[in-house]
Amino acid sequence: MVGLRTGPARTGPWMIAVATGGYLLSVWAWALPGPLAPLLRDELGLSPVQQALVVAIPAMIGSLGRMPVGALADRFGARALFLAVTLATIGALVVLALVGRRSVAALTAGVTLLGVAGTMFAAGVPFAGAWAPPHRRGLAIGVFGMGVCGSAIGGLTAVPLAHRYGITVPYLVCACALALFAALAAGVLRDPPQRAPATGGIGQRLGAALRLPITRQAGLCYAVVFGVFVTFTTYLPAYLNNAYRTGAAEAGRVMAVIVVVAVLARPAGGWLADRLAPRRPLVVALIAVTGATAVQAATPPWPVVVGVVLPVLAVALGVASAATLALVAQTAPASLTGLVTGVVTAIAGLAGLAGPLLLAVSLSRFGGYAPALVLLTVAAAAGALTATGRTGRTGYDPSGMAGPRSTTGHS
Fold first, then answer.
1. 337-366 and 236-244 helices cross at what angle (nearest 10)?
2. What average pLDDT is seen over the chain?
3. What share of the chain in percent tops pLDDT 90?
4. What would the DSSP string read from start to end of 143-159?
5. Which helix (H) or strand (E) holds 363?
6. Cα dist from 176 to 25, 94, 158, 173, 304, whole Å
7. What is the pLDDT of residue 59?
8. Model confidence over 264-306: pLDDT tens digits?
9. Computed over its alpha carbons, how large is the radius of gyration of the chain?
10. Residue 386 neighbours by CB under 8 Å, 6+ apart
11. Closest CA to 26 of 189, 160, 147, 159
12. Cα–Cα distance between 363 and 296 in angstroms, integer?
């Protein structure tokens, strides 16, 4: 703890590390309904639609809730929102453990409350960026974004724990981990010393955020990135089974590798955003996504899929994700960074729900995935074109193409 008292340069990495740990745990909680859905289906007799809603409701609540959480973080500081979201998530997990298996209504209420866990991202991105020096802001945001791998904890542990100790145990184990984080955050986390609380009502600031060109541009780019990411992760096993007749175990392994590669590429994308300015790696990454989805629309042979298309997609999506958020942190006014991040990631969350649905409709209507993949290709191309545009009047380098902004002692 002594190191926390030696100034922002030494404190920043600690703050970012603790925040990343908290985000990882919140994602663990947020994703728990996914692996537990088949067990809940058997216990409660869920229909296919009800089972899908158990997974979709937290995702939708977590996505839409990022706008108010981002706005509140601008007003009251990210530390307060970290604690509030963590305590609310613990409450949701306890509700699910106590009554979630008693009825469909109780389960639905529990997963709806659990959606709040997904909102921590909107507070964490500006928090991580503000604690880093300007020339490392993209890297800090990329590191924070690695917390999304918390979903893998639930995927690996939830079902074994439920089989061995009962379906309530995964909820309670995660709740205990979050309680430890809450205690650590209360004692360690501090808002950046330069933070100035935002003023004005949420409605007024939301209108100001929506009028910013960066909100629209980053919203489209991140919607493409996250929509394609969810499509080629969450829906990947079903896609590979239908298109290539792969077994469930093999498809699951491929999905796990893609997720890991994409997550590990986020810090690289942040580092490139710091070195080259965010738009450059973002444009290149979206061009790579466009090419990869175009190739996949032709249903290439299996070796091309696993050896070229999916690895290129994973790296490009990880880079594009961090570069987009670094662009927001660099361009949006400091008093609106959390709100802009919330709007951008909320739009992306809804796009993530639409991607798998698009592929499912394509299969049922046309007997294949090519039409949906062509649409994803067009969307990625539109994102790449949007990423080259100017962000407008912000007080910073509007194009983002001139390199990182100059800071004391750095060029």
1. 20
2. 86
3. 49
4. HHHGGGGHHHHHHHHHH
5. helix 337-366
6. 10, 10, 14, 5, 44
7. 83
8. 999 999 999 999 989 999 999 999 999 999 999 999 999 999 9
9. 21
10. 217, 220, 221
11. 147
12. 15
Question: How many helices, marked H, and strands, marked E, lie in the chain?
Answer: 19, 0
The secondary structure of residue 405, as a DSSP letter, is P
Phi, psi of 347 (to 5 degrees): -60, -45
Task: Give per-residue pLDDT as tens, 131-141.
Answer: 988 888 899 99
Q: Of the candidates 20, 3, 8, 66, which has an alpha carbon nearest to the alpha carbon of residue 185?
A: 20
pLDDT given at position 267 = 94
What is the C-alpha separation between 62 and 53, in angstroms, rounded?
A: 14
Q: What is the mean pLDDT of residues 320-339?
A: 90
Backbone dihedral angles phi then psi of residue 6, each to the nearest 5 degrees: -100, 15
Burial class (CB in 10 A: 0-12, 13-18, 19+), 304: middle
* Matching residue, tokens 């090419």: 291
More confident call, 310 vs 154: 310
